[in-house]
Each structure stands twice: as structure tokens, then as C-alpha cells.
């Protein structure tokens, strides 16, 4: 897991930035702020929750107060950053209507429900079913999978427009999405003790406006926000909390740890609950990855505990401060068994080999030796069959492999049996020279899906490909 960190140290040394024209609302001044706010001076904000069956997300400009002084003009869903958290029971149909109310310079939009088992038309394709300026698209999610309910999971939604995802997400087009599942243990912390956290980094100019300069190696910021707030504090009681943590940064990985040396109890990944909780003291979380954690503040009344990012030094190391300021009776518990993994066919129908690589031309990445083309299909898995995909990283940089449509189970990483915290996921860190073997079963959905690196500038610099599920 040190590869990503090494990769990012390397980033700062490389001067290979490719400039794209300043789009509306994107700052172009020197990437520095005059004001350096004191950490932990603002409370954490929990994004508003939408739970209706029919949801409207309007992509529009909004002035968001992030730093002291001028508000930051962002591209938002419904006027906030993060966008509203969508929270829906599994097994029920949800429609999300995306209205594109952004200035024409933003271009057409597409909304991807990341981690969802969506049909091809409803998956937020990068170059099809787009919402033009002034137009809209309605996505339908059935909440079902393989003849049952979709597994409870912490997902997120974001723009997925071809060649512009990095810019669009940086400008604010991202929100969280939770599928609640009655099959998950009910004793886990819930209600106000179940808190989704979106971590992002951004760079602001002297007028507090976002600065985005495309760089095919990845764009990182010099401020860290949790739920859109710069280094917030959060008042907690002396009991267990469930934190669903999403790294929604374009390119930056985080190495999470608590300042008092206390450990986390990891209960889930992108793809829902683990079979059993895993105790961990440091957790690396790459872009698009999620970790579902329980932190127990029992016996810590009066203490301040900081969620840190050990991958960096200095002020950016401080992400979020917990202030244990209330005494409460514990009402939750974490069972020693959470949820078994779905059983997959032991003898896969096909084995594929996929190579993540670097193109000769600077500023382009490849999958299977080729840059992305919406007209190319790499392979055609058959519906209701299981395959193994061996994914190798020959590119000399770390990547985050994200496969749409279905969850994947890890068979091995570098020839070794998987760690107990990465048994089933859909976004995988793949360090330099690493190999992972995944098993995946194609259920319900026919048609075309993308898979790609989730370092958004790698994706925009063509590290994306397609497969088509056929009858
Ligand atoms: Cu989070 Cu293909 O996306
Ligand atoms: Cu996705
Ligand atoms: Cu990559």
C-alpha cells in the first residue's frame, strides 16, 4: 500500500501538466489562499438526506461557503457540496432525475451511481444517454440483484462524462448513496450514530475559487475537506459510531489512523458488510474506495481524537476532530459474524487477462495496450456465468481498478490469499507491478459497461475500456 504514496511524492516532481481552457467558474489565479484557517474551527456538516422513491438532482452553480471570506462558486447537485445523500431501502425502485442547469461551458452531463447494479442504460455511460444543457435524464435503479435484493452498501454518485470527469467532480458533482438492507445486523450503530463521511482534497486560489489544471498523472489539492468542510470537528458521545468513509478525491490516497493510537473495527467495504469485522489501526483508502468502520469512544469522555492522514505531514495530516463530549448509554453492538459473501461458481466459464499500462505518448494511459474508445469492446462475458479476471499493472504508477455492473471477489493479490478486509469490492488499489485475480458473476444486465482507473485524470486520459454482457 505504500505504492500510492510513493506515486504521489513522484507527482510533485513531474512537470507534465496539460492545460485545458479555463471553464466557467474555475479559478485561474495562483493556487494559494491568503487565509490559513485554524483546524477544527467549524462543525462537521451531515449532507441532507433524500429518501423518496423519486429524486431530482439539479446540477447547478452555487456559492458554497468553505473558507473564511469569499464563497466558492461550485458545480453542485441541488446547491450543496457534497450533494444530498440518497438513502433507500434495498429491493425498491428508485428514480433519479438529473437536470443539467449548469452553464453551457460545462457541457453535457451523465450521472453514475457508483457501486450500484444498474442496467447499461441507467449506468451513467460516459458518452451516451447524456443530459444536455437545459435537458434531463432519468435513471431507474431496481434495487434487485441476482433474483434477490441488492446487498446493502455505501455507494456514491458522481458525474462520469468522457474526458471531463476529473474537472466535473472537482467542481463539486458528487454525493453519497446508501442502500439500507434489512438483512444486515440491526444491532450496528444506527440513526445519528451512523455517519457518512466524504473526504476530498481541493486547491483554492486567492479569491477562494477552485483551481483545476488537468494533469494526466492526477490532480491533488492542498486542502482537505470532510463533507465539504475544511478540517471540521464533530461532537460525539462515549459510545460506538459507524462511519462510512468515502474517498471522493480525484487522485489522492489517504492513510487513515486515529491520533490516540486507537484502532478501527472495519465492518464493510464498497460492496457491503464483510463476513466478519476486522480490527485495523491504519487503513489506506484510494480514490473511490469506501471503508465502513466502527469507532468506539467508550471511556474517552472529555478527549479530543483526530482522524489523521498519515500519508502526509503538516496541517493536511488533520482530517477531522472527534470531541467526546456526551455521556450516553451504549445501545449498539458489532456481531462477530456480519454477512457471508455470495457463493460464486468454483469453475469459471472464462479467464481474462487485463493489463493496465502507459502509452508511449506522454499524457495517455492504456488498458490492454489501447487508449479508451467508446467504439471498442474488449470482451463479451455471457450472462449468468462467472469469470476470473487477472489484472496486472505494467504502467509504472499505481492505479485504482474500478469495474462497473457487478461486485468482484478477490482470489489472490500477488499470488497471496486476500486480506480479510478486501474479500469483495469494486474498486481496487493496484500498486506498481502488482497483480490481482478477481472473480465476478454477470447477473441480470445485458449490454455495455465500462471499467477504468478511478484516479479521475487517468480515466480522462483514456485509462478506460468496455465489456459487453451477452446472452
Ligand atoms: Cu465512480 Cu466508473 O465510476
Ligand atoms: Cu462505478
Ligand atoms: Cu490510474
Name its key features:
seven-stranded mixed β-sheet, 40% strand, binds CU-O-CU linkage, mainly beta, single chain, binds copper (II) ion, 4% helix, 471 residues
Explain how this protein is built.
- This protein is mainly beta and 471 residues long.
- It contains three helices and 33 strands.
- A hairpin with a 2-residue loop joins β8 (144-145) and β9.
- The protein is globular.
- One copper (II) ion is lined by residues 399, 453, 455, 458, 463.
Overall pLDDT metric: 93
List ligands, each type once: CU-O-CU linkage, copper (II) ion
> How does the major sheet shape up?
7 strands, mixed
Give me the secondary-structure category.
Answer: mainly beta
What's the structural blueprint in terms of helices and strands?
Layout: H1 2-11, E1 49-50, E2 54-64, E3 72-77, E4 85-89, E5 94-100, E6 111-114, E7 136-141, E8 144-145, E9 148-149, E10 153-159, H2 165-170, E11 174-180, E12 194-202, E13 223-226, E14 229-230, E15 233-237, E16 240-247, E17 254-258, E18 264-269, E19 272-280, E20 283-285, E21 290-296, E22 304-309, E23 318-326, E24 350-358, E25 365-367, E26 386-393, E27 399-403, E28 408-413, E29 424-425, E30 427-430, E31 435-441, E32 447-453, H3 456-460, E33 464-469
Parallel strand pairs: 1-4, 2-5, 4-11, 12-16, 15-23, 24-26
Antiparallel strand pairs: 2-3, 5-7, 6-10, 8-9, 10-11, 12-13, 13-14, 16-21, 17-20, 17-22, 18-19, 18-21, 22-23, 24-25, 26-31, 27-30, 27-32, 28-29, 28-31, 32-33
The structure holds CU-O-CU linkage and copper (II) ion (2 copies).
